[in-house]
Amino acid sequence: MGLRAQVRTRDGWAVRHAVVTVTDMSGAQVLRVTADGDGAVSTGTDLAPGPYTVIVTAMGYAPAAATALVTASGRAEVGTVVLARQGGSELPPPGTWSLDPAHSSVGAVAQHLGISSVYGRFTDFGGRIDIAPDLSRSRVDAVIRAASVDTGNGLRDKHLKSPDFLDVERYPEITYRSHGLTPSGPDRWTVHGSLSLHGVVRDVDLELAYLGTGPDPWGGVRAAFRATTELRREDFAMHYNQVVQAGISAIGTTLRVELAVQAVQGEALPTA
To answer: Is residue 89 part of a domain?
Structure first.
């Protein structure tokens, strides 16, 4: 009934207790409601048909506005309203930023049997981001210990570490070094770099989103990013493929890589 919406951050988290104000076209306030703990908004009251302005505010976030058209049923679906952190469009200050593994993740998703997905991650990694005054000259360097792969299944992890896949004895490290940056929006970039995996080096682009900067409890400053890319196993000489019935591969040939990164300003991380 009435107006319904979801309030989310740019990386998909619910913004709890955001305040939603609805005004008519004259600017008069029609109603005001607070989102629940899941970021959901439902007015529960039918509105007169017509266009309305929906203004969403929350502490620590920049306000956002959307237009809602209420139908003759008295209902309107606003969909998802995305809030950016206050000042989030401002870039992190130039300098060195150290990746914080305790608050970051390196994950990958592969298709299994053509019908579902298997999720994995690497637990041992590090890196740094050097943000230049001329943003296009910024650099990213990261290293992952291949043997830290973890899919939640010991037998599968052993196979992934074998010569069929990562061959961790011969190639213990996976590295990424950027060599360029192309803007794709006010807080989004395509990072161009070289990925060294399984003894093969190939150019790989990361689709990077900047999520904002803020203080941490230890007196430091943190910046958050999200990045994604897709890799083909064959491009890195990982040709293992068990085929099951109907010609379907047991493991998909494409991996979707998902990175969630917190970086701390400076060369060293806080000790706490």
So the answer is: no
